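Per your request, structure below.
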């Protein structure tokens, strides 16, 4: 019963949110992520452990806390005036998108050059095991820097496409957004490509592209199919296939039904975080032990350099035991390490309030809010498997800085044009 309860509860919340709220609302993304994962987990197609009542309660409580806090954040947002409307910022967004493309080209070139100089062209492009180990270690100084640029660039290009209007210009910007997302391939994670694609799609939906609810839903379904195809296609290239996994080496639904064995890895990806979370909960303290350093490792790194003792939390979570090794512990991972089982839901509620605030500001037409919400949406979509707060925070800061630079350039160009007109007169 404890393993079925989260599926029932999160599924009901998701269906209500889908029925009553606009598409891409943060409660839909958060509840939908947990609903899909827990429902698939409840099928037990792999020999997963049963959930403890505490884990089941934390999952249900996280959905309830997020859903309750989102309207509070939205209420705060409605009291603030919009300084820069999306439509009025069209030129600034286009300039910011061009800046992001230039920055991505530079950072990607530096990243790939680093890999090629160390491993050669073939191994670097194939992302071999040696490359993966290198990128997951502390040796690679540029191992993650360009991914944030790719996510911010994908969102900015998609937003520029929305504001460009229908026609060739929009298509070019959307192709640019897809290209930006595709560059995340070199990060070794297929998930980062999906993160960038979802950020771009959210920018399309939230910024006011002229599509109705049915068309937007069709776009979301098409994106889901594309991400699944990406999962299989890139998996074949980098060697993440059923034949190379351990799933076929023990008795389970997929080993007994070879006709559907190709679905084993997607199923594991969408479900293994739930029992892994149960292991983490069992080893968590009541009040936490990292004091914020799990959720904000960069800030704690700065504090350590200033001589203040701060807990060092590994970037990657430890693996579960064979035969189902997994190192994803859902969005709650960092919160449990920082705040423990007693206060993790408080951090979830704060996240929900932030999501509601950004959503309301974006719907009201704030350019910065549209951009930041689009970049943040993947963190809610992938809540079932990992905590992406650090990535979306860095990408959001970068996107906001590029938008600010775009506004400055746009104003400078406008002022220059006016001076030329006055001089001509």
């Amino acid at each position: 019963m404890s393993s079925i309860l989260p599926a029932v509860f999160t599924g009901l919340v998701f269906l209500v949110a889908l029925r009553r709220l606009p598409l891409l609302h943060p409660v839909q993304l958060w509840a939908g992520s947990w609903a899909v994962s827990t429902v698939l987990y409840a099928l037990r197609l792999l020999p997963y452990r049963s959930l403890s009542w505490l884990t089941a309660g934390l999952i249900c409580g996280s959905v309830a806390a997020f859903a309750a806090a989102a309207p509070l954040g939205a209420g705060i947002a409605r009291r603030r005036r919009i300084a820069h409307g999306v439509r009025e910022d069209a030129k600034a967004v286009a300039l910011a998108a061009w800046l992001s493309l230039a920055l991505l080209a530079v950072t990607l070139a530096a990243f790939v050059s680093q890999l090629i100089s160390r491993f050669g062209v073939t191994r670097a492009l194939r992302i071999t095991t040696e490359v993966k180990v290198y990128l997951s270690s502390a040796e690679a100084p540029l191992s993650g820097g360009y991914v944030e640029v790719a996510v911010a660039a994908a969102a900015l290009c998609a937003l520029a496409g929305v504001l460009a209007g229908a026609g060739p210009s929009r298509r070019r910007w959307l192709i640019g957004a897809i290209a930006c997302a595709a560059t995340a391939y070199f990060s070794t994670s297929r998930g980062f490509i999906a993160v960038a694609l979802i950020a771009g799609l959210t920018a399309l939906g939230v910024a006011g592209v002229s599509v109705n609810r049915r068309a937007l839903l069709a776009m979301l379904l098409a994106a889901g199919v594309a991400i699944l195809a990406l999962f299989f296609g890139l998996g074949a290239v980098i060697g993440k296939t059923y034949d190379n996994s351990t799933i076929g080496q023990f008795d389970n639904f997929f080993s007994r039904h070879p006709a559907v064995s190709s679905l084993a890895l997607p199923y594991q990806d969408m479900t293994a975080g739930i029992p892994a979370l149960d292991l983490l909960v069992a080893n968590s303290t009541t009040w936490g032990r990292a004091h914020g350093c799990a959720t904000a490792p960069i800030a704690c790194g700065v504090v350590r350099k200033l001589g203040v003792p701060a807990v060092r939390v590994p970037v990657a979570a430890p693996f579960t035991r064979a035969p189902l090794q997994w190192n994803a512990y859902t969005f709650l991972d960092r919160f449990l390490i920082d705040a423990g089982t007693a206060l993790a839901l408080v951090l979830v509620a704060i996240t929900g309030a932030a999501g509601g605030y950004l959503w309301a500001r974006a719907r009201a037409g704030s350019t910065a809010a549209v951009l930041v919400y689009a970049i943040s949406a993947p963190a809610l979509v992938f809540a079932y498997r990992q905590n992406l707060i650090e990535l979306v925070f860095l990408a959001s800061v970068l996107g906001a800085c590029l938008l600010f630079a775009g506004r400055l350039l746009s104003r400078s160009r406008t002022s220059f044009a006016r001076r030329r007109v006055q001089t001509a007169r």
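The CA atoms of residues 7 and 39 lie 5 Å apart.

Regards,
D.
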